[in-house]
Q: What sequence folds into this?
C-alpha cells in the first residue's frame, strides 16, 4: 500500500482580535471539505482541539500585538512557519484596538480596571509586520472569504495571490452600483480604500467604512477636501479615518494632520 | 430626415418593445434605480423614467421631477451601453486538469443569453459603440465575445432633447441627434400636441421591425418640430470643450506644472474610466480553486488610474497620480486621434459627473490652454 503524499500543514493563530477573521475560514461552508482535503489543519483551536506539532507550511495569523507575551509568541510562530500570512485589519494594521495608540494606555487602564496593577499590556497595538517578517498581508475587517481562499490556494500552489490593491470604486462600478457620494451626497471612504469586500456597504446604499485600509495610491488630503465639501467637520473626518484601520499609515497620518485635538497635534 | 420618416404614439412605442421581445431580444432600456437612470431589462412603458429628469454637475447627480410626461427627458445615465456589450467581467475560458497533468481541457465559453435590443441609446453613446466596433472588432485580434454580442444587437437610439450640465457632445461633434449606427432612431415630442416619437429608419432590420408596429408617416410639421427640439438642445449644452489644435496642446503640455494641480485633487479612484463609454482597457485574471484542478480566465475592466495597471517587471510605469491623469486625458484628447483617427471623448460628461472629486475634463483642457474658465453651475 502506497502512502498518500502528506498534506501541507495549516496553522491558525490568534492574537488581540475578535475572532471574526478565523470565523471567515469556518464560514467557507461550501469549500470546507475541499479545504480539509487540500490541507492538514494542524493547529486551529477555534475549530478543533487536536494539535499537530509544527513546523507548519502555512500559518494564518489573526490579531495584533498588544502584550509583552504576544510580542514573544509571534517570533516562535514565525520560526515554525514556512509561510506566514496575516489575516485582517488587526494583524495587518493594529486593528480598532490601535485607537490606544492615539491616547494614554495608563489613563485607560486606571479608568477601566479596579486593579490595573494586574494588567500587563503594551502602550501600542501593532501589526504583525512590526515584529516579524510577513509573507502576505490580507486586508479586511473581517477578511473576505473569497480572498482568503485565493490566498490559501496561492500559498499551496506557490504562486502570488491575486489580491488587487485598487480602490473600492472599481468594485462598485463593476457591480453596477450607483455612487452614493455623487448621487446622494453620502460620505464614502471608497475612493481611498482598498477593494476586496466587493463594495459591500455601497451595495446597500451606505458609504464605505474603510475596513480594508488604504488603497495603493490614496490621496488623503484631496479626499479630506471632498469630505469638507460634503459638509463633514474635521473632527468627524478624524473619526471615520480612525476605525478599523486607524493606525494604517495613510489613515493615521491624515487623521493627525487634520485633528483639531491638542493631544494629537503634540504627537 | 428622409421621406420614410415615421411617427409612433405611446401605444406604438409599447408595440415596438413587444415586437422586439417577440423576436427574442432581451430589451434593455433606461429605468430608475437607486436615485439614477440605469440600463436594465424593460418590458413596458411603465419601466421607463416617465417625467424624470436629471441635474448633473461636477461630482453631482440628482434626479428631478420634470412635471411632464417625457419618457426620455434626461441626459446621460449612470452608464452607457458599455456594460451590456462589453461587460465588466467576461469569462473567457475554463480549464480542468485531467489525470495527466500536461493535458488541459480548454473550453471557450459561448456568449451567454439572447441578443440585446438597446432602447434609448444617446448619440454620444452610440458614437462610443462605433468606436468600440473599430477598436474591438476591426483590429488584428477581434474580441469574439463582443463581436457575437454586437452582431446580434438591435439599437433604438433616442435624440437628446434635454442635455445636462455636464454635456458637451456638440463640442465633440457627436450629438445631440444620432447620425447613423442605429436600427431605429427616435425623437420624442411631448411639449406640443400628442406625445409622439418621430422615427428615422437606419437599417433594413429596423424597417422590418417598424413595419410590425402601427407607425404612420410623419407630417412635415412633425419633422420640423423634431428638428427644432434638437436644435434647441444643441444650444443648451452645460459644458464646452474647445477642440482646435487640442492634440498639439496636449502633446506640448507633457511637462506642464498643471498636472500637479490635478493630482492634488485626483483620488486615483478610477471612476472616470469606468463610466467612460469609450474606455476599453481590461486586464486578464486567472483564478484557480484550492485543488488547482479547475481554473478560469476572466477579462475584467481595468483602469489606467490604478497603480497595478502599468506594472511591468520591476515596478509600475506610472507611479504618480500626476502621470496617470496626464496619460488618461492625453489618450482621450490626443493620442486616440493618432491611434484611431478621432477624439476618444464623445462629450457625454460622465467623467465629470461621476468623479467624486469633481475633476472636469473640459476645465482641465482649458487650463492647459492657459484660459481657465468658470464652469456652469446649475445647483
A:
Amino acid at each position: 500500500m502506497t502512502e498518500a503524499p502528506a498534506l501541507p500543514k495549516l496553522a491558525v493563530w490568534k492574537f488581540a482580535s475578535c475572532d471574526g477573521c478565523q470565523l471567515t475560514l469556518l464560514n467557507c461552508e461550501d469549500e470546507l471539505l475541499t479545504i480539509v482535503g487540500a490541507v492538514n489543519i494542524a493547529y486551529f483551536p477555534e475549530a478543533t482541539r487536536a494539535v499537530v506539532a509544527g513546523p507548519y507550511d502555512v500559518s494564518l495569523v489573526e490579531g495584533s500585538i498588544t502584550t509583552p507575551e504576544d510580542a514573544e509568541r509571534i517570533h516562535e510562530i514565525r520560526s515554525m512557519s514556512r509561510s506566514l500570512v496575516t489575516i485582517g485589519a488587526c494583524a495587518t494594521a493594529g486593528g480598532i484596538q490601535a485607537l490606544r495608540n492615539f491616547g494614554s494606555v495608563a489613563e485607560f487602564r486606571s479608568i477601566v480596571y479596579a486593579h490595573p496593577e494586574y494588567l500587563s499590556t503594551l502602550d501600542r497595538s501593532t501589526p504583525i509586520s512590526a515584529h516579524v517578517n510577513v509573507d502576505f498581508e490580507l486586508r479586511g475587517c473581517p477578511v473576505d472569504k473569497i480572498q482568503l481562499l485565493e490566498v490559501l490556494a496561492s500559498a499551496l500552489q506557490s504562486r502570488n495571490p491575486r489580491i488587487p490593491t485598487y480602490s473600492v470604486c472599481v468594485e462598485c462600478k463593476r457591480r453596477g452600483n450607483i455612487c452614493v457620494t455623487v448621487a446622494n451626497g453620502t460620505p464614502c471612504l471608497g475612493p481611498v480604500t482598498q477593494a476586496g469586500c466587493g463594495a459591500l456597504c455601497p451595495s446597500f446604499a451606505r458609504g464605505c467604512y474603510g475596513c480594508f485600509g488604504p488603497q495603493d495610491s490614496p490621496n488623503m488630503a484631496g479626499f479630506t477636501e471632498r469630505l469638507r465639501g460634503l459638509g463633514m467637520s474635521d473632527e468627524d473626518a478624524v473619526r471615520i479615518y480612525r476605525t478599523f484601520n486607524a493606525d494604517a499609515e495613510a489613515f493615521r497620518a491624515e487623521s493627525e494632520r487634520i485633528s483639531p485635538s491638542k493631544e494629537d497635534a503634540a504627537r | 430626415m428622409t421621406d420614410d420618416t415615421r411617427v409612433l404614439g405611446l401605444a406604438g412605442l409599447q408595440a415596438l418593445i413587444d415586437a422586439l421581445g417577440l423576436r427574442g431580444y432581451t430589451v434593455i432600456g433606461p429605468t430608475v434605480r437607486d436615485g439614477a437612470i440605469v440600463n436594465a431589462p424593460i418590458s413596458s412603458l411603465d419601466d421607463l423614467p416617465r417625467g424624470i429628469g436629471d441635474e448633473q454637475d461636477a461630482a453631482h447627480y440628482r434626479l428631478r421631477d420634470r412635471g411632464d410626461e417625457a419618457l426620455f427627458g434626461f441626459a446621460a445615465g449612470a452608464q452607457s451601453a458599455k456594460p451590456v456589450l462589453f461587460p465588466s467581467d467576461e469569462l473567457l475560458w475554463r480549464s480542468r486538469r485531467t489525470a495527466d497533468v500536461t493535458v488541459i481541457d480548454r473550453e471557450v465559453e459561448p456568449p451567454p443569453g439572447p441578443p440585446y435590443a438597446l432602447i434609448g441609446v444617446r448619440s454620444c453613446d452610440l458614437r462610443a459603440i462605433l468606436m468600440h466596433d473599430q477598436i474591438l472588432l476591426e483590429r488584428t485580434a477581434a474580441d469574439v465575445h463582443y463581436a457575437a454580442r454586437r452582431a446580434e444587437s438591435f439599437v433604438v437610439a433616442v435624440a437628446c432633447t434635454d442635455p445636462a450640465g455636464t454635456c458637451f457632445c456638440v463640442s465633440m461633434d457627436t450629438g445631440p441627434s444620432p447620425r447613423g449606427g442605429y436600427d431605429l432612431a427616435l425623437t420624442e415630442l411631448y411639449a406640443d400636441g400628442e406625445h409622439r416619437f418621430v422615427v428615422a429608419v437606419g437599417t433594413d432590420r429596423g424597417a422590418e421591425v417598424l413595419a410590425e408596429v402601427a407607425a404612420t408617416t410623419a407630417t412635415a410639421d412633425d419633422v420640423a418640430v423634431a428638428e427644432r427640439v434638437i436644435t434647441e438642445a444643441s444650444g443648451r449644452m452645460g459644458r464646452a470643450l474647445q477642440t482646435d489644435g487640442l492634440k498639439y496642446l496636449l502633446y506640448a503640455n507633457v511637462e506642464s506644472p498643471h498636472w500637479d494641480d490635478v493630482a492634488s485633487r485626483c483620488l486615483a479612484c478610477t471612476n472616470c474610466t469606468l463610466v467612460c463609454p469609450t474606455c476599453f482597457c481590461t486586464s486578464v485574471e486567472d483564478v484557480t480553486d484550492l485543488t488547482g484542478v479547475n481554473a478560469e480566465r476572466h477579462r475584467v475592466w481595468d483602469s489606467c488610474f490604478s497603480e497595478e495597471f502599468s506594472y511591468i517587471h520591476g515596478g509600475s510605469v506610472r507611479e504618480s497620480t500626476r502621470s496617470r491623469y496626464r496619460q488618461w486625458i492625453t489618450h482621450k484628447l490626443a493620442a486616440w486621434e493618432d491611434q484611431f483617427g478621432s477624439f476618444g471623448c464623445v462629450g457625454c460628461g460622465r467623467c465629470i459627473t461621476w468623479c467624486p472629486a469633481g475633476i472636469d475634463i473640459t476645465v482641465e483642457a482649458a487650463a492647459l490652454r492657459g484660459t481657465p474658465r468658470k464652469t456652469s453651475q446649475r445647483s
Summary: The interface with chain B takes residues 31, 34-35, 37-38, 149-150, 152-153, 156-157, 162, 164-167, 169-170, 173-179, 181-184, 188, 190-192, 205, 215-219, 221-223, 225-226, 229 of chain A (CB under 8 Å).
